[in-house]
Amino acid sequence: MKPFASVFNPMVVRFIAAGLLAGALVGGAYAQQSGLPINAAASVNGVIITNDMVEQGIKVAISQGQKDSPELRKVVIEKFIEVLLLSQQAEKDGLANSEKANTQLMMIRQNYLADLELSTYMAKNPITDADIQAEYNKEIASLGPQGMITEYKVSDIAVASEADAQAALARIKKGEPFDKVAKSVSLAPNKVQGGAVGWVQAAQVGPQLASALTSLSKGQVTAPIQMQQGWYLMKLEDKKSSKPPSFEQAKAAIRAGMTQRKQYEFVGQIAKDAKIVVQ
Fold it and tell me: What is the pTM of this model?
């Protein structure tokens, strides 16, 4: 699970970000600065756009490749004005209480609170440089005396049942290309790439998949493997060995992996105490 915390309503963030390259769509005709509170950048029919909101909008734009400038600030303010104008008009048109609006607003609130909970948890339980160094040392030690990293170029097919997996495997054994079968039956997003996953290390795919993967020869396909998400077939496209990166080279990737694992474990802890019913 990737963290995407932001003080912005995610829909507004996308709205702002999408319009930054388009230039000033609203224009100066909407500007009316007299009588505004100290921390206000603008207002629309009495609704205040604060300087803090603008600063957050600028940060979002910069993170997406924009360059900080007075012009960027102007565009961000104009996009906030545009959003407020449209949202206020939606209120007038009776759209605010529609089922579609209520569903979207509920999802936005849930996503924001989920992001906030994750970011708060990580702030209270940070991953230190010492943690990263220890993880790096552990990974280096796991390489054995040769000290080389083995990477596997993998493709996979994900289906809902063992029967579906067996049927897909039968097609492959009859000579149908793996990528064609993946495009036909896989439920994973990478089906459009013929099931291509790319280069991975055994430790990145979990013990069950790693055990199957390391036993394959180039071009071979596993028997169906049951996972929590469904049933999988994996094909080993290629294999290579290389020297491990230095600590500084690996530091960012290790931190990202540890963060993702820590968040996953946190969600798992919460799930244990929850009553979850799936149709």
Answer: 0.55
